[in-house]
Design a protein that fits this description.
Layout (H helix, E strand, L loop, with lengths): L1 H22 L9 H4 L3 E9 L2 E10 L2 E5 L3 E5 L14 H12 L3 E6 L4 E7 L2 E2 L4 E7 L2 E2 L14 E8 L1
Parallel strand pairs: 1-10
Antiparallel strand pairs: 1-2, 3-4, 5-6, 6-7, 8-9, 8-10
Length: about 160
């Protein structure tokens, strides 16, 4: 008799638990914009035609960027609708490093791409024979530097590349 009673109690408790779980409203976790744009620490290198121009770790997140040639525009991963909310980006990392380590960079803003083209870093320009390639973890980014989402620990490189 005790075994039947214990078995009946277990079945009742399980059924009650399932019923409560089914009647509870579903709670969806959505990341807020602040959550997606947390500062991340990345390693940034800038390789010019004659050697390393900068190498260091930088904490970054997406933000507005101002250049002499391009003016002020957002550079937070929402550019070109690449990400639904702000995120850290390679160009924002370059901008943060430039401010923190007191070097210059410049870029032209292209409204049609909703992104900057990096034209010069530390006075080194691509000119008509080269450009600044952006890569993350050894692979060229498939989108612009204000569109690509960075994650903590990424290795970001701006490399002067001849045509």
């Amino acid at each position: 008799m005790r075994r039947t009673s214990a078995h009946h109690t277990l079945i009742t408790a399980t059924a009650l638990g399932l019923a409560l779980a089914a009647s509870a409203p579903a709670v969806a976790h959505t990341q807020s914009a602040a959550d997606t744009n947390r500062r991340v620490r990345v390693t940034l290198t800038v390789q010019g035609p004659d050697g390393m121009l900068y190498k260091g770790k930088i904490r970054t997140r997406g933000h507005d960027v101002t250049t002499v040639a391009g003016g002020t525009h957002h550079c937070d991963g929402t550019n070109g609708a690449a990400n639904p909310s702000p995120v850290p980006t390679p160009t924002a990392a370059l901008d943060d490093a430039a401010h923190k380590r007191h070097f210059t960079w410049d870029g032209t803003w292209y409204a049609s791409f909703d992104d900057y083209s990096v034209d010069a870093i530390k006075g080194v320009s691509g000119g008509s024979s080269a450009y600044w390639n952006i890569s993350v973890n050894g692979a060229s980014t498939p989108v612009g530097g204000c569109q690509f989402k960075l994650n903590a620990g990424d290795k970001v490189a701006f490399t002067w590349t001849a045509f």
